[in-house]
Amino acid sequence: MTDTDLGTQDVLAAVRFRTDGDVDDETLTHLRAKTGAVLARPGLPAVSGRVTIVRDTAHHVALPWAALASVQVGDQHVVVHAREADALALADRLEDRLRAQVERSAHRAESARRTAGPPPWRGGAAGEGHGLLPADGPSSAEGSSPAA
C-alpha cells in the first residue's frame, strides 16, 4: 500500500516537519509515515500544523530525542510532546499520543455541550429515567387526595 492509496500525501502536505540536531533522512521518513497514518484517518476534518523533531547533542542526556506536534484538527488544537532514548521509540510514542489526542478531539465535538432531553413535565418523552413520576402520572391508589 502506498501513500497515495492511504491519502497521506494531502495530509503530509498540510503538516510541516522541522528538525533540530542530527536527524537523518531515514528517521524523518519514518516519523512522517507514522504521523501521516494517524492524521489521514477517514472521517477527520481538515488537518494542518507542525511537527518538530529534536535530537540533543549532549552525551549526558538520558532521553536525547524529543518531538512536539502542534496540529489543528478541524477547530480543535492538539498539542503532543514526546521524549525517548532512540528515534524508533520516539516515532512510536508520538504516534500513540497523537492518535489518542486526535481521537479525543474528534469525538469531543460530537458529545460536547449536548443537553439531555427535557423532563416529562416539560414536554419530554416519559420514562427516560428522570424518575420523579411514573409514565402515566400518580395513581389514586397511592393515597393522593383530590384537590379541594
Automatic annotation (TrEMBL):
Residue stretches of biased makeup (Basic and acidic residues): 101-113
Region (Disordered): 101-148
Biased composition regions of type Low complexity, renumbered to the chain: 134-148
UniProt name for this protein: Uncharacterized protein
Originating organism: Streptomyces phaeolivaceus
Lineage per the UniProt record: Bacteria, Bacillati, Actinomycetota, Actinomycetes, Kitasatosporales
